Design the sequence.
């Protein structure tokens, strides 16, 4: 049977010796199968040209790579090192067997939505970025609440004082949003979760809205500029009073390749300690 994916890019953190060792083993195996292999240890994926990207590491590494290659429509698979990951789910000890199946077309494919956020100040967009998990407005190092207005599709939802607010994709519903008592969304859902962080009112509950909607957060009191807008917990910009953050579904999607026996609920049960 011929290979479905022939040109493979391997991503690993350059400062992680264990990831580099596994990436070396993976490269040797793929070359033996007849694949063309590209190594990218600095996680710089802007100009990647490949049929498949394989991430060696954890969910954080995959989040970074996913944002970088989203516009190039390259499917992703992840080799898990260490803790069970929601995104990187191929065990190191089984990687050759599972990847051989994937390379020959035996896999599950999941499409995951991305979020696009834009920050406007005095009427001008000054920053924008994409996120796979979540876009978060949160207080900084000072232990004081921030105040903001939340709107959905231009309609006022509420004004609240809180530690912040999370706009999560279904992928991100099992990340920071879960810690803030947000709902777990099935990965195939076309929906967003809007989850407050420690609101100063018990009535501000998480919302689940259509992925076609736009969430707007207007900063009313940033706590003396002690407030940040972050993307997947990996990059951030400081917010000021009067800033507006608009979050909506991005144009691009991520394609995750899973083993044929992958079950989202098996992962939830193992990760969350369900019986």
Sequence:
């Amino acid at each position: 049977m011929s290979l479905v994916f022939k040109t493979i890019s391997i991503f690993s953190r350059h400062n992680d010796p264990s990831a580099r060792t596994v990436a070396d083993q993976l490269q040797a195996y793929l070359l033996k199968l007849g694949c063309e292999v590209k190594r990218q240890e600095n996680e710089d994926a802007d100009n990647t040209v490949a049929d498949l990207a394989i991430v060696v590491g954890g969910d954080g590494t995959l989040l970074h790579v996913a944002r970088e290659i989203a516009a190039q429509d390259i499917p992703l698979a992840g080799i898990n090192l260490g803790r069970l990951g929601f995104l990187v789910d191929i065990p190191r000890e089984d990687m050759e067997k599972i990847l051989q199946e994937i390379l020959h077309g035996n896999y599950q494919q999941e499409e995951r939505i991305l979020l696009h956020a834009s920050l406007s100040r005095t009427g001008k967009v000054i920053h924008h970025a994409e996120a796979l998990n979540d876009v978060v407005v949160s207080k900084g190092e000072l232990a004081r609440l921030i105040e903001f207005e939340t709107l959905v599709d231009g309609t006022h939802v509420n004004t609240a004082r809180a530690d912040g607010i999370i706009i999560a994709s279904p992928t991100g519903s099992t990340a920071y949003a879960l810690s803030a008592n947000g709902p777990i969304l099935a990965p195939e859902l076309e929906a967003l979760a809007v989850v407050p962080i420690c609101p100063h009112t018990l009535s501000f509950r998480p919302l689940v809205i259509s992925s076609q909607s736009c969430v707007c957060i207007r900063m009313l009191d940033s706590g003396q500029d002690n407030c940040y807008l972050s993307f997947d917990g990996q990059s951030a910009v400081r917010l000021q009073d009067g800033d507006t953050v608009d979050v909506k579904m991005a144009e691009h999607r991520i394609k995750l390749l899973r083993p044929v026996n992958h079950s989202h609920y098996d992962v939830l049960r193992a990760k969350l300690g369900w019986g």
In short: The chain has two domains: 7-107+259-272, 114-252. Residues 114-252 form a domain with the Tumour Suppressor Smad4 fold (CATH 2.60.200.30).
